[in-house]
Amino acid sequence: MAFLAxxxxxxxxxxxxxxxxxxxxxxxxxLQIANYIIPILVIPFVTRALGAEAFGKAMYAQNIIAYLTxxxxxxxxxxxxxxxAIHKNDKQRTINIFWSVIASKFVLLLLSFALLVGxxxxxxxxxxxFWLYFFAALVNVGFAIFPTWxxxxxxxxxxxxxxxxxxxxxxxxxVVLLITAPEHYRYYLLISSLAYVVVGLxxxxxxxxxxxxxxxxxxxxxxxxxVKGFPIFLNCAFAALYTTAGFTIIGFYFPIHG
Length: 258
Description:
This protein is 84% helix and 0% strand. It has twelve helices and no strands. The chain is globular.
């Protein structure tokens, strides 16, 4: 009877909600819904509105910008998460890690835009439709300020999942309502990027205020996440090159329409 009572206690919704493991599992479920199901629901509306050619241009631009996203993310999703988790009870160290990662991401963000300018100068496909690639690249501003790694480090996956769900829901709704013709293909990427930037900014301000992360006293730059993140960055970069480089290279030599 005592065993059955314990099972009943652990299966009680109130008990489940208080368990970090259950909350994190439920949050990951919401994250998967946001990342996969919402885009799948939106794609039929987008392809019908844009047509195959315009939709293909948008997807190819996203493919190119994905390489720059790897640069901006660097490896902090793993390295900074680990450091935050280890030092989350050390307020000053947490602040140092947080602002060191944000500063590093902004440097990498500037480098990514410099590389985009290089593509504009040397590759006709990007030169011919620069605004499409620029609008797609704006999503990296969101990646630079969205503190996914911080939420993971302090084990607040629920909040991260909610913010991520907001990104997908807002962008998906706006795309369905506003993208209605093939000439809107640039705005399709702009909407997606701006949604991530806006929600990323909200999440960024939230964690600073909620966890009191403004620099206090003697701030020092923490190189730990950069050193730990470098092998992860290389692994992600080589994996992306291995899986998508052929498609990317072929796309550069395709005829440019419109």
